[in-house]
Write a structure and sequence with these properties.
Chain A: Pfam families: ACP_syn_III (PF08545), ACP_syn_III_C (PF08541). The structure holds two protein chains of two kinds. Chain A is α/β, with parallel strands linked by helices. Chain A is built from ten helices and 14 strands. In chain A, helix 3 crosses helix 4 and helix 7 packs across helix 8. Chain B is globular. The chains are: A alpha/beta, B mainly alpha. The interface between A and B is small, with 12 and 11 residues.
């Protein structure tokens, strides 16, 4: 048997820089109320959301990703040519082939970096971060650009009063690279596919293409099959996101050996402020911990929400470089991922 | 030992007070969680989870929708507590 030379990576990995991109158009609740029978007060009390950003035609998945990744690279002080891999997590890039990560890798100016997309819904950032850490430590890439990006406005049913107000667009990115100290803790992750129907796409692309003869499909006023949208069972998701995810978040803290008093920042997926509040309460975190509430002005941006919230906290000074942060993503799948990181 | 209806209502009153800030004396059998007590669908989930722990009972999501009044919840817990 021939001996295979092992790869050589860094002792540890950490996040070196973060960047975000929010589309220029700010959409207040008043705009949402044009298509649903609700009120600003109801939307705010159920979700905490006041405004969200919706992308225009130029703010594509690729364009928003490039902006966010460019900022993250600049913040990290890393040249694109040093990047060995680009990982993009998204559920709203409507061109499945080729992976959008390849276009982003080329436009960023990487030297033929490995590039691929993953799909893990709102847990996507944690999944991609875990892959990036593995690559850096294992040695297949020295620096990895991780991007969470969504144009959920394209997958929103504006006539559904339970979800029309929820979703937003944007991109968040981090650069992961070598470190002498552990900067990304063990990931506690998993999936519960038996609950897959709790958060889902209303209509599959194939059923959408076949058309209205499938009488079970939702139709619009003209009798055409309604464009696919993301739908969810609110109460079931809330219960899972708060009470099951509190256990996962605690496991991530324990796995990293971080006690409540050592934690500076809590960055949960920005799904809904009520989930954030209840999760914080259930976890019994000290009041001194800074909690990300980017959902108020960004809405739920799925895979983009954690890096966007991280970027916002660092920009406002609410969190600072070197802070210890608990991040947890959870959503469609149902899939989840939690870990403790040192902020860049 | 299984709780009596009276104990269950008193327990629910404490839970509703803790979660929604409603005075315990307002939590009566005939009161609707949403219409009378201002407990919205998400707070209802928190009430249910707290009640599950307190009374050692499982209340699945599909059953939560049937619990309109405090009396509905008390009856459900009475029947299902172990």
């Amino acid at each position: 048997m021939s001996k295979i030379k092992p790869s050589k990576g860094a002792p540890y990995a950490r996040i070196l820089g973060v960047g975000g991109y929010r589309p220029a158009r700010v959409v207040p609740n008043e705009v949402i109320l044009e298509t649903i029978d609700s009120s600003d007060e109801w939307i705010r009390s159920r979700s905490g959301i006041q405004t969200r950003h919706w992308a225009n035609d130029e703010e594509t998945v690729s364009a928003m990703s490039l902006e966010a990744a460019g900022k993250a690279l600049a913040a990290a002080g890393i040249d694109a040519a040093q990047v060995g891999a680009v990982v993009v997590s998204t559920v709203s890039h409507f061109e499945q082939t080729p992976a959008v990560a390849t276009e982003i890798a080329a436009k960023l100016g990487t030297d033929r970096a490995a590039a691929f997309d993953i799909s893990a819904g709102c847990a996507g950032f944690g999944y991609a971060l875990t892959l990036a850490k593995g690559m850096v430590v294992e040695g297949s890439a020295e620096y990895v650009v991780v991007i969470g990006v969504e144009r959920l406005s394209d997958l929103t049913d504006l006539e559904d009063r339970a979800t029309a107000f929820l979703f937003g667009d944007g991109a968040g990115a981090v650069v992961v690279g070598p470190s002498e100290e552990p900067g990304i803790g063990p990931t506690v992750w998993g999936s519960e596919g038996d609950k897959a129907g709790v958060i889902k796409q209303t209509v599959s692309w194939n059923d959408y293409r076949v058309g209205a003869e499938l009488s079970s499909l939702p139709l619009d006023e003209a009798g055409r099959v309604k464009f696919p949208a993301i739908t969810q069972e609110g109460q079931t998701v809330f219960r899972w996101a708060v009470f099951e995810m509190a256990k996962v978040a605690q496991q991530a803290l324990d796995a990293a050996g971080i006690g409540p008093d050592e934690l500076d920042v809590f960055i949960p997926h920005q799904a809904n402020e009520r989930i954030i509040d209840s999760l914080f309460k259930t976890l019994k975190l000290p009041e001194t911990v800074t909690v990300a509430r980017d959902v108020r002005t960004t809405g739920n941006t799925s895979a983009a929400s954690i890096p966007l919230a991280m970027d916002r906290l660092m920009e406002t000074g609410e969190a600072k470089s070197g802070d210890t942060a608990l991040v947890i993503g959870f959503g469609a799948g149902l899939a989840y991922a939690a870990t403790v990181v040192t902020l860049p | 030992m299984a709780a009596t209806q009276e104990e269950i209502v008193a327990g629910l009153a404490e839970i509703v007070n803790e979660i929604a800030g409603i005075p315990t004396e307002d939590v009566q059998l005939d009161k609707s969680f949403t219409d009378d007590l201002d407990v919205d669908s998400l707070s209802m989930v928190e009430v249910v989870v707290a009640a599950e722990e307190r009374f050692d009972v499982k209340i699945p999501d599909e059953d939560v929708k049937t619990l309109k009044t405090v009396g509905d919840a008390a009856d459900y817990i009475l029947k299902h507590q172990s």
